[in-house]
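Thread: 6-O-phosphono-beta-D-fructofuranose complex, take 2
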Amino acid sequence: MLSPHMLPAWKALLAHHEEVAPLHLRDLFAGDPDRFDRFSVCLDDFLLDFSKNRITEQTFRLLMELARDAGVKGWRDRMLAGEPINNTEDRAVLHIALRRPADQPLELAGQDIMPAVEAVRRQIADFSRRLRGGDWRGFTGQPIQDVVNIGIGGSDLGPKMVCEALKPYQSPDLRSHFVSNVDGAHLADTLAGLDPARCLFIIASKTFTTQETMANAASARVWLVDRLGDAAAVSRHFVAVSTNQAAVRDFGIDPANMFAFWDWVGGRYSLWSAIGLPIALAVGAERFFELLDGAHRMDEHFRTAPMEKNMPVILALLGIWYRNFFGACSHAVLPYDQHLCHLPSYLQQCDMESNGKSVNRAGEPLKTASGPVLWGEAGTNGQHAFYQLIHQGSELVPADFIAAAEPPLETGDPLLARHHPILLSNFFAQAEALMRGKTEEEARRELEDHGLDEEKIDQLAPHKVFAGNRPSNAILFRHLDPRTLGMLIALYEHKIFVQGAIWGVNSFDQWGVELGKQLAKAILPELAESGAVTGHDSSTNGLINHYKDLRSTES
Ligand code: F6P
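Output below.
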């Protein structure tokens, strides 16, 4: 397979990087009053400003050429046409079908999949209406008050992130909880204080074999049956979301209470499927469908907008510019929105499980770096934690700033309105500070204004200098409503896709998570056996044996 570094545009970018690296964003802005207009794109009220990136018009042209040389359009069309682009699992990648209008057929292996998609949507809507309306009741006849989603990875992070993001739209009568960690503390802490008669458990697992989810589901069932005193209660308190009907039945959940999805939905791309059931229960099916509509809006933008105006393509290329030409190892996601506090961890799975690869689709070692470490935190908390490094550290950390211009519509709370301008002033200021920096001259002048003597100024000035020239994107929309959130998530999904297409990796498998799972399976029985273990390396043996000693002696 042709490595991207052999493409003419890649070679041109390498040479061009030498010219651009010394340029300062401050000067680029000073030299071009239209820079913002030149390097920003709008879709409805959703703005992507990418003008604070270390690019010139020539960089932008070359990056677009790279996308063309790498055949991004072809890969996009193959994905949209349902070709099995997940080649190591021989699967299509069709999460876009989950947010597609039902009256637009989409064929997979000669069959229109939209009727099945629509049937599950109707099942979700029906169940949500019954549960929220108090018609679906628990075993003792009480309405449900707490929904506990048990799942991990894609069966947890997406719905958890969205439920938090749409908190202002949630019904106060129904609380959402998410249990993922196999550490019993997660389940025990969540269940403490809940009334089993008013709990609904959603067991969410694409495979229905994941160790953590199955262990948590089994313990939740014991907890419920112990407290309600009858195994028959399970049918009123457990539903499943899975592709594996046999395993759902074996667990004891009536297939009538199962919500299906399909192998062409990757786990980390599944919140649009029945995996989104907790979302529909929390905010209502109509809001869930608005989320899907928003994502579909971005799908259409990705499908039809010219590359130069295509937000996912632009974000992907800028990421590649920093990762492969500036050597940036990480990328920060900085939502200035408390309700988006789970977005960074959601995107960590989406991005790092997708593009954290070191072989190409043909299994050959990559000759270029692939996905960066993605991290972040809701603003302004990050400012008082790690922004020091982003501003003055030795690493270049490109960042995405995300904010809504107004607090969510649904909350009439004046407190939010009062705080919002303070929040947004920080959103604007941090990106500006990263870009501009502070020169030595400015730093010295400030110290002089504070009345410091020459010696003190000499001593402090180097610490007060900000090099600036630190790139960022800004995403700004009106409200964090379901539709906008759908657009935002789909934007990142397609960005990840475009990057994978250019690096030549399969963004839709995740073999890297398997080895640890296999080893844990082998180690679990060893922990219960008496005597020392000897079958591992000396470190693993030593750790397991120390654990056994600690467990066999009193503290
Ligand atoms: O972490 C590996 C993984 O396979 C993810 O890709 C997936 O989202 C998660 O485990 C959970 O899998 P499942 O939904 O099958 O329980």
